[in-house]
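Teaching assistant's notes for section 4

Start the section by putting this record on the projector. Ask students to predict, before seeing the second block, whether PD-(D/E)XK nuclease superfamily protein will look compact or extended. Collect guesses on the board.
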Amino acid sequence: MSFFLERLAEYYLQKYSTDISDFCFVFPNRRAGVFFRRHLQNKSPKPIFSPEILTINDFFFYFDKRPVSDNISLIFKLYQSYKEVIDPKTTIDDFIPWGEMCLSDFDDIDKYLADPNQIFKNMADLKALEDDFSHLNQEQIDAIRTFWSSFDPKRLSQLQKSFLELWERMPLLYEHFNDRLDRDREIYEGKLYRSVAQKIKNKTIGEVPFSRVIFAGLNALNNCEKLLLNYLKTQNIADFFWDYPQWILTNPAKPNEKISLFGEHEAARFIKQNLQDFPMPSDWESPTCNGPSKIIIAQAANDLEQTQIAAQFLKDISDNQEDSDHTKTAVVLADETLMLPVIHAIPSQWKSINVTLGYPLKNTPAYSLIDALMTLQRTTRTTANGKTWFYHRHLIGLLRHQYVSPLLGDKRDQLINQLIKANKVFIEKDQIPENDFIKKTLTKVETIEALSSYFMEILLLVYKSLKERPDTDFEQEFVYHLYLTIKRLGEILGKLNEPISTDTWYRLFRKLTDFSTIPFKGEPLNGLQIMGILETRVIDFDNLIITSMNEGTFPHTSPPNSAIPYNLRKGFGLPTIDHQDSIFAYYFYRLIHRAKKVILIWSASDANQQTGEMSRFLHQLYYEFHGKVVTQTYVRKAGTKALPQIMAEKNKQVMVQLSAFLHEHNRALSPSALSTYVECPLRFYYKYLVGAKEPEDISEELDPRIFGNLFHQTVEALYKPFMGQIISEDILKQIAQPDNLRNTLKEIFSLNVPFIKQKQNVFIDLQGKNSLVFEVLIRYLTGFFQNEIKKVPFVIKGLEYSMGMVFKTPSGRSVYLGGNIDRLEEKEGTLKVVDYKTGKGTNRINDIESLFDSSKHPENKAIFQTLLYSLMVEEQTRRAPSAIQPSVVWMRKLFTDSDSNLYLQPVRGKKEVITLDLVKTVFVDSLGKLLDELFDPHMPFKQTPEEKNCNYCIYKEICLKG
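Reveal the predicted structure now:
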C-alpha cells in the first residue's frame, strides 16, 4: 500500500515524465512538501529540476508581494487607529485583549469575503435589541425594580450607549486600520487573501507564473481560496486532489455498507462540496486502505504517564522491527506542552528525531526566567538613602532557576545557603557577593527603554552559556525566540507617542506571549517524527502514537476568539465552533485511516489533577472500527512488575550509600526514619540515602512543622528550670501564669520566625495569620498545663533527651538506633517516655504486628516510635521493662481527652496499658525482621502499595507511580 504523497509523485512522473519543473504543488503545510520532494527524488528515473512546492498561504504571496506584519506590530497599529476613531482615552494594556479579538475577526471577515459594514451594523442592531425594554408592561417594570432600583426602560446607561457606539463605529475602525496598513505597505493574512480575491474579481490578477498548479490535501477552504481555485480551474491550469477516508462519504441509506452512527460524518462536511466544485482527475486512483488493523486506546493516570506509555510503545515497535524506516512512525502531540517530556522519554533505539510543531512560549524555561526577573523587579525596593532591598522568595527563586546555575557555578549554592542561614525576609544588595551576572541582574530598572535592554542582556548571557553546553538546542531556541519577542516589543513601544510604565510593559509582555508559540521546523527525511496535529495534514504513517486524546484537547472545545456571536457568524458564513469540530474530525480520521497500527493515549487527570475525559473521537471508534479497538488501562498496582523500585537488588552503590548514612557520618537510624521505611521503602531511599528533599527556604509563615517546633521548644523552656525537681501543682500553676506563657512564647517566636525580631532585642507585634497562631499556641499551652496538674507529682528526668542503642538483628547485624525523646519523667517508680504529637494518630492497637504494616503505620507511628525510644531507655538506664512505659500527649485531644497512656486491646480481648514488658518480645522480634529486610541486598526499595501513603508525600511528583 502506498501513501498519498507517494502515489501523487508516481502519478505526475508517469503522466509527465520529468517535465514538471514549471509546475507548482500546493499543500496545506511545509512538512508535506518536504516528504513529497523526497518521493519525487526516489521515484524519478533520472535527475530532474524540482517543481515549486508551496503552502496555500505562500501561494497567495505570488499575487501580492506586501509583507505580512507580525502580530505585535498589528496590535499597536490597530490601537493607534482605535484611539483616533473610537476612544482616545483607552490605554494600551486595556486594549490588548480586545485588540487581539478584533484582529481575529477582521481576519475571518476578509478570508470569507464578508461585508464588514453589514456585520457590524447587525452587531449594533443586535445589541440595541438586547437593551430594548419597550415590550415590558408596567407590572413587569415594577417587578424588575424590586431588585434593580435604578432600572429605567426608557433610558440607556452611559456604558450601554458607549457599547452601541463602539459597534456603530467599527466599520470606520476597519477602514481606518486598513488605510494605515496601505500607507505603510503592510498587510495581515486576511487582508492578503481579500486583496488577491479582489484582483480576481477585477481581472487584474496578472499571469500565473506556473504552467500547472496542483492543489493536494486541502480541506476546509475559505471563500478567498475557493475563488482562487475556481479562477485557476477556469484557466484550465489546475488539478485538485483530496485526501480523505472513503468510508466517511458512504451514504448511510445504502445496504451492506459501513454506516456512521451519526448519519453524515462530521469529518466529511467539506469534502463532498470540494469534490463537487473541484473534481479530481478522472485517471487518478487514490491509495486504497482498509483502515488500521489494530487500534489501541490506552488510559494513563496523568500527563507524565502518557509519555511513559508512548515510550513503551516505541520500544515495542523498535524491538519488533515494525519500522525499519523510522520516518513511518510518528508521535503526534495533541497537547504541545508534552513535547519536552516526550522527547526525554524516547528510548535510545530511536537515534534520529525530527520535531515539527509550535511549542507554547509561556511553557519554556526561558519564559520562566523572564517571569522571575519581572517579579524580582516589581518587588525590589530602593530607599531614600540609595539602598536596594530584595524580597527573599523572589531572589532565591531566581537563583534556583535552571539557567542561573551554570552562570554562577558553585557560588550559586553557597549564596543560597548563605541567604537562608541569615534567615532574613528582606535582603540588602550590599550583603550579596557580586559577580558579572549578579551585577547585571540585581539592578533596579526604572524605564521601559532600560527594561527591554535589561532582559535582552540577560538572555544573551544565558544563550552564550547554553552554547557551551551539549544537548541544549531546544533551550537555545527558547532563549532566541524570547529575545526576538522582547526586542520587537521594545522597538514598537519606543515608537509610541505616549508614556508607558514598567507595569504596563509587564502586562503587555504577558498578554503577547500567552498565545505565542515557538515554531520548531525540521527536515524530516529520516528519524522518528514528533509532530503537532496541524503538521500531520496529508502525511501518512504506518505507526501512530497520539497523546492527549482528551475531550477539550482533541478536539478543542473552546469557541473562536471572537466578538461576533455564533448566529451572526453562521449567517455571514464565518467559521464557527461547528466548523472547528468538523476540521478536527477530518484531521483525526484522515490521519489514522492508512496507518497499520494506531495507539491513542488519554489521561485520567490533567496537570491540575482535574478529572480527564476521553475524547468523543475515541468513543466513535468503537462503532466505526468495530472489532479492531482494544482498550488498555495503565495503572500501576501493588505486586505488579510495573511497581516502581530502586534496582532489582540493592547493588553495591546503594549499600555504600546506606553504610555512609549510618556509619561514616556517625548517624543513627531514628524512629522517624524507620517509620518512613515502613510507610514506603522508596520514600526512605529518596529522603535518607539520596538526600532528595524540598529546598530549604526562609520561614515566613508558620507551617505545621514550625507550629510543632514552637510548642516543643516552649514546653522545654518552661520546664527546664525545674529539671530533677518534684513537679507539684503549685509549680505548674506558677509555670502556667498567662504572662509567663506569653513572654516565653514570644522569646521562642523571635528565635524561629525571622521577621519577629526586626530590631535587636525588640519584639514586634505579630500580624495577620501569625497572630492567630500565637493565640492558638497560648490556648494549647494553657490546656497542656491544666492536664499536667492532673498527673502531679512527677519528676522531669530529661527534656529533648538524646538516646541511643546498638540493636542486634536475628541475622547478627548490629544497627545503631538513636534519637531525641521529648520528655522523660518518673512517677511512682515508673519511667514514662513522653512524646508530643501535633498530628493525628491513635492510642490503641490490636496487636504489635500492625505497627509494621504499611497500611496501618501512619495511624500507629506514635506508638511505634515511643516503643522504640522505650527500648533505648531500657538499654541506657538498665531499668526493668515493667518499669518503662511509652506515653503520647496528643495536642488535638488536650481539651477532650487527657489520657496519655497507650493501650493494647486484641480483638475481643481485654484492654491493657502498654508497658515495655508487655510487648517487648513481639516488638523486638518484628523490629529485627524489619532491620534485616532494610539491610538485605536482595530486597529492593519498593514503592508502597498503599496509595493513601502517597497523598502528602513530597516525592509523589518524581515517583514513577505518578
